[in-house]
Amino acid sequence: MTPPHKPHPAATKVACVMVGLPARGKTYVARKIARYLAWLGHHSRIFNVGNYRRNAVGAVQPHDFFDPSNPESVAMRKEVASRALEDMLLWFDRAGDAPASGAVLTNSPISPAPNRSLKTESVTGVGRAGPGWVAVYDATNSTAERRRGIYEKCVENGIQVMFIESICDKDDIILANIKEVKLSSPDYAGMDPDKAVEDFVRRISHYSEYYETLDPAECNCQIPFVKVINVGDQVIVNKVKGYLQSRIVYFLMNLNITPKCFYFTRHGESLFNVAGRIGGDADLSPRGQDFARKLPTLITENLGGETQLTVWTSTLKRTIQTAAYLPYTQIQWKQLDELDSGVCDQLTYEEIAEKYPQDFSERDQDKFNYRYHGGESYRDLVQRLEPVIMELERHHERDHSILIVGHQAVLRAIYAYFLNYSLDELPYVKIPLHAVVKLTPKAYGCIEERFTVDVPAVDTHRPSPHPALNAKNKS
Ligand code: ATP
Ligand code: F6P
């Protein structure tokens, strides 16, 4: 059953406070952290001061709106920043009123509702069991004085704070960032791109006039922070304590801003797929073997610029047999083994419904959290897959890509991480047999391509009885 959503009084509440000049990747990092934690089952939400500003005064503002010698705009910017901060404190206090399920984790900017209602903005996984509540306060937070105010408010409210600064002095990266995300921002809608770049550079110089980098002496020498310098060339950690905080530091250390595309496919059709049985360690069916033989050509035809590939399989026969003809380095990961269906292993869905009717219906009611007796839940699977996600985030070798030959549940979890599906939707993602999916992560999203080969296979997807959870699936 779904426990009440109010944070437990002892629940960890962490505010990640972003620090950095414009176009240093703060929003990028904020979204990544929120996504990563929500996928792991924690509650996470971003408070983006830029969105509050756009809501309050309109998106299109010339650079002098950010000029520190302009008293009116200074007051307005202070006002929207404190509104966002108040909302964050309210969220920590009242997040329990948010809907328990169906909350959408979205890549689109989280715009504040005019009445500052908390319900519509929640960026969370279902969060039924995840004990952590993590907010990311996304603004430049460019002075020690302003950070001190945030630190004190959080401490007064029992919230642990962690500052995350992104420093980058590489002009080429900053220019690329401006071109990649700022020109398409509502702030520059319809503007000539050269003029927009020029205006944004002037906006940065206004902030640079008074910007103060984080200093261990801030907040009476108690300030916990991570400084990420030049996209991870150097990472400085100061007074960071706590489980969630450590996970965040670890994640930041692996984060890479030019994540490479990667490919995945399910194994070829297996004898168990044909028989409608779940789990097991069956061989490929004749059609599955045909897919395995055709896979090398399908891959080389669609490799794009990548000249090298590493193939990751599980330790189960059906993925190893599927990868058998691929002329690339292969690595077997135990973590990539299919969801363990415990006592239901090797049964058909009909047999499960007959032998374990209550379990069968409980699983339909809450598939993400349902754990097979003696086996795993999707929630367990996500925890097991964390190192795989970390490796995919970290991987950035030039001309080199990864192909995962995996299983239905495992690939659903990986796909849901990159495509921002909610944890309720995750167990229903449709990943057909005999299709290769290529994912190319971008600054604020992910491009998906699918390549198929003409080898028929059974359909192993059982849709949810709740149609909304199937809605995002491609036909
Ligand atoms: P603003 O203050 O205007 O909101 P921002 O600091 O939030 O700017 P983003 O909008 O997040 O900047 O910029 C996104 C771009 O930053 C992407 O192109 C991304 O690749 C890049 N990026 C991500 N992380 C870093 C980093 N650590 N250092 C520099 N650039 C980064
Ligand atoms: O200039 C970039 C920006 O993200 C604006 O969109 C936003 O209004 C501002 O920074 C928030 O930071 P600050 O609180 O320093 O004004």
Architecture overview:
- It comes from Spizellomyces punctatus (strain DAOM BR117).
- This protein is α/β, with parallel strands linked by helices.
- 37% of the residues lie in helices and 16% in strands.
- It folds into 2 domains: 12-105 and 119-254, 3-Layer(aba) Sandwich (Rossmann fold), CATH 3.40.50.300; 262-470, Phosphoglycerate mutase-like (Rossmann fold, 3-Layer(aba) Sandwich).
- It has helices at 26-39, 49-57, 71-94, 144-156, 171-182, 193-210, 218-221, 243-254, 271-275, 286-301, 317-322, 349-355, 357-365, 378-394, 408-419; strands at 13-19, 43-48, 133-138, 160-167, 225-229, 234-238, 262-266, 308-313, 329-332, 400-406, 435-442, 445-452.
- The strands form 2 sheets. A 6-stranded mixed beta sheet has the order 2-3-1-4-5-6, sandwiched between helices. A 6-stranded mixed beta sheet has the order 9-8-10-7-11-12.
- Strand 11 (435-442) and strand 12 form a beta hairpin.
The CATH topology of the largest domain is given as Rossmann fold
Total helical elements? 15
Total E-strand runs: 12
The CATH class assignment of the largest domain is Alpha Beta
What oligomeric state is this?
single chain
Computed over alpha carbons, the radius of gyration is 24 Å
Structural class: alpha/beta
Average pLDDT taken over every residue: 89
The number of distinct structural domains comes to 2
Helical content band: 25-40%
Inertia-based shape: globular
CATH architecture name of the largest domain? 3-Layer(aba) Sandwich
Topology order in helix (H) and strand (E) letters: EHEHHEHEHHHEEHEHHEHEHHHEHEE
Can you tell me the CATH superfamily of the largest domain? P-loop containing nucleotide triphosphate hydrolases
Bound molecules: adenosine-5'-triphosphate, 6-O-phosphono-beta-D-fructofuranose
Beta content comes to: 15-25%
- Amino- and carboxy-terminal Cα gap: 31 Å
Largest sheet data: 6 strands, mixed
Poorly predicted runs of 5 or more residues: 98-130
Biggest β-sheet: strands ordered side by side in the sheet:
2-3-1-4-5-6
Protein name: fructose-2,6-bisphosphate 2-phosphatase
Pfam families: 6PF2K, His_Phos_1
Binding site for substrate: 266-273, 318
InterPro entries: 6Pfruct_kin (IPR003094), 6Phosfructo_kin (IPR013079), His_Pase_superF_clade-1 (IPR013078), His_PPase_superfam (IPR029033), P-loop_NTPase (IPR027417)
